Structure formats: structure tokens, C-alpha cells
Amino acid sequence: MTARRYVDWIYQGVFYLVVGLIYVAILLRSILLYRDSPVLGQVLGLLLLFIGLFLAEEALTKRGNIWFLIYLVLQTILTSLLIYGPEFNEYDYFSLLFAILGMQLMRRLSTKASLLWILIFLVLIGYKFYRFEEPIEWLTRLLLFGSIIVFLASYSLAARRAQESRRYNQSLMQQLQDANQKLEQYSDTLEKLGIARERQRLARELHDSVTQTIFSMTLTTQSALILFDRGPAQVEPQLERLNLLAQNAMAEMHTLISELRPDQEVDGGLATALRQHINRQHLPEGLSVTVEAYGQHGLPPLEAQGLFRIAQEALNNVVKHSFARHANLHLHLEEPCWIEIDDDGKGFNTQQAFGSGHIGLAGMHERADEIGWNLIIQSNPGEGTHIRVEKMYPEKERA
To answer: What confidence tier does 98 reach under pLDDT thresholds 50, 70, 90?
Structure first.
């Protein structure tokens, strides 16, 4: 049995227990008071009809709300006959049957409709007790039976609202679980898209760099073979070029293999990780790269890893395309946090580069968006390249 069904079972059990105790008390008292009276059969008949309708109420209600209203009218008439009947109206305990109806009202109807019906019950009871000469006795009986009816109806209302609140919370929990499941599926989709995008980028890099280098090596080898037959002395420059191309191919492959490694924590800090990365690279002859860092502000691992990948891509572009003599990485790790990568290379037309769908630049923008930083790339032919990545702060923090 689930927790929800167990709690519902408790509420149902308490409801039927209270109804049973009230009904049995009324039944036993009727037998005691009317055992020598000829109207005992009529009293028992009306009470049996009341309990019969009560037991059939749930089946009737399933057929529509109108049936509950019919049931309610019939039960009110039966209770009124027991209260006002000339043969057996000298006792007042039949008024407790309205307490049973009050509990059912709160289970089935709206609060306003239920209060209206309870007010009708109190009017019927009050008019019944109005025959007593002493006003204080009339008021005492009205308050006694009215408080019982209102108390039991309030309990029934509280139980109903507790059940509705629990069902609502369970519905929210189910929605949350569904949302988490969709989020996991969305995360898996993003991961697959990221893998596909990374494969596409690597394929482009292989085509633009390693494949072209190997093609040049093939042409150089064929040229060396031709020159070997014509003049062996002319082969040496071709072999030197072949060696240089092979070294470049190895450097390109080393870079791509390092990018295939899974993301690792930048444990020693972003500046240290970038210096280590530069030391592992095969930089072209004549190119120098410096790293300057200011501040010791620790970045979250996700942001540090994203900035590392952005700087790595920027350095790859410097090595492969810029023909620069010097590049500088400036890290400002105190708020406001930012990093800059500058080179004195040949530069490029940014509009043409973005229009052609350059995968490296697009990947840098995507990584910056993922970590909530803003990427700015400025470059012109013959003027080098300036890249700035700055952390975006909420307006409240800026104020």
C-alpha cells in the first residue's frame, strides 16, 4: 500500500467510524425510548431507510452531481420527519443525523454550497427547539447540536483539503520528475550535438591542416624523385622542405590529439594551465608567446575550463594562420574578470570569417555563451588580432 492510499484509507476510516458511532447511538437510543411504543417500527423504518441511502450515496454520486443533490434532499426530508413527526418528535437526538449529512456535504460540494446547506440544517433544528418556553434552553440545545454539526463538517473539510493538497503536491512531484527526465534527455541531446560538432570541427581541422600538409609532403616527395633522376644536388632542398612539413604535420596531430582528451580540472589555476599548454606546443620558429596574470581570484571549474579551451583555440589560430612574431595572453582574475589574447600577425576580415562559418571562431563563441562570458573578436588585415573574453555580471551586482 502506497503512502497516499494509506493516508486516504485513514481519512475514510475515521469518516465511517464517526458516522457509525453516531448512527448506532441514535439507533440504540430509539430502541430504548420507543421499545414500548407502537411507533418503534416507524422510527426504525425511517432510520433503516436513512442508512440505506447513505450506503448507496457513493454509487449514486458517481452518476453525476445532480444525484447527490437528490440524495441530500431525500435525507433532509427523512431527518425532518424524525424531528417533526407528531408521533415521535418529543426527542431531539435525531438532529445528529444532520451531522452525518454535514460531513458528506464537505466531501462532495463546494465550501459555499456546503455552508448554505448547514445553515438550512441549523434553521430546521432551531425551529424544532423553539417550542421550549425558556430561551436559554432553546439556545443551549441549538448551540450544542450546531457545534457538533459544524465541528464534524470542519473536520471533513480539513480532511478533504489535506487530500487535495497531497494530490496537488504529488502532481507537482510527478511534473518535476517528468521535467527532470526531459532535462536529462535534453542534456543527452546537447552532449550528442556537442560530440557531433566537435567531430565536425576536427574533420575540418584535419582537412585544413594535416591533410593539406600531407598532400604537400606527397607533392614534395614526387618532386624529389623527379629531381633525383635529373640532378641529385637539387634533391637536398626538397628533402629539407619534406622534413619541415613532417614536423608541422606532427605538431598539428599533437594539437588535435590534445584536444581529444576529456576536459580536466584546471587545478593549478588558469594561468598555470595555459603556460603548461604553451610549453607543450611546437611553436613555429620566430613566434614567442607570453602569459601575464593579475590577481588570484579563483574561477569556478566550469568557467576556468571554458576559458582554457577558448584561449587554446585562439593560440591554435595564431600558430596556424597569423604568421605572428609575438602573442600575449593577459589574464585579469580580479573583478571585473576578463582575459585578452593579442597577436601582431596578418589579421583577417572578421565579417568574411564569420560569414564563411569558421568553425573555430564559432566554437569560441559557443564556449563563451556556455559559461556566461562575452567574447569580442577584433581584427583587420595587416593589423593583427585582439580577442577579449569578459565575465557578464547581473545589473544588481554592477550597481
So the answer is: very high
Closest CA to 85 of 51, 123, 31, 128: 128
Element (H, E) at 99: helix 97-108
Question: What is the grid cell recorded at 367?
Answer: 564556449
Give yes or no for a contact between 111 and 67, defined as CB atoms under 8 angstroms apart.
no
Residue closest to 312 by CA, chosen among 374, 257, 383? 257
CA-wise closest residue to 248 among 213, 204, 281: 213
User: Which residue in 322, 242, 250, 325 sits closest to 280, CA to CA?
Assistant: 250
- Rounded to the nearest 5°, which phi and psi values hold at 387? -120, 130
C-alpha cell at 363: 566554437
pLDDT at 41 over 80: yes
CATH architecture of the domain covering 264-399: 2-Layer Sandwich (3.30)
Average pLDDT over residues 264-268: 53
How are beta strands 326-332 and 373-379 bridged, if at all?
unpaired
Contact (CB, 8 A) for 47 and 34:
no
- H helix or E strand, kind and range, residue 110: none
Length of the chain: 399
C-alpha pair distances (Å), 37 with each of 41, 83, 301: 9, 17, 90
3-class SS of residue 92: coil
Place of cell 489535506: 162
Beta strands in the chain (DSSP E): 288-294, 326-332, 338-343, 373-379, 385-391
**Separation of alpha carbons 100 and 74, rounded Å:** 14
Closest C-alpha among 296, 293, 345, 291 to residue 320:
345
How far apart CA 96 and CA 248 sit, in angstroms, is 98
- For 53-71, the pLDDT digits (tens) are 999 988 888 887 888 899 9
pLDDT confidence bin for 396, thresholds 50/70/90: very low
Compare 168 and 250 and report the one with higher pLDDT: 168
Cell 576529456 appears where? 262
- Give the domain ranges of the chain: 3-178, 264-399
Specify the pTM: 0.49
Contacts 24+ apart (CB under 8 A), 33-40: 33/91, 34/88, 37/88, 39/87, 39/88
Beta bridge partners of 341: 329, 387
Q: What DSSP assignment string belongs to 296-357?
A: -PPPPHHHHHHHHHHHHHHHHHIIIII--SEEEEEEE-SSSPEEEEEE-S----HHHHHHTT
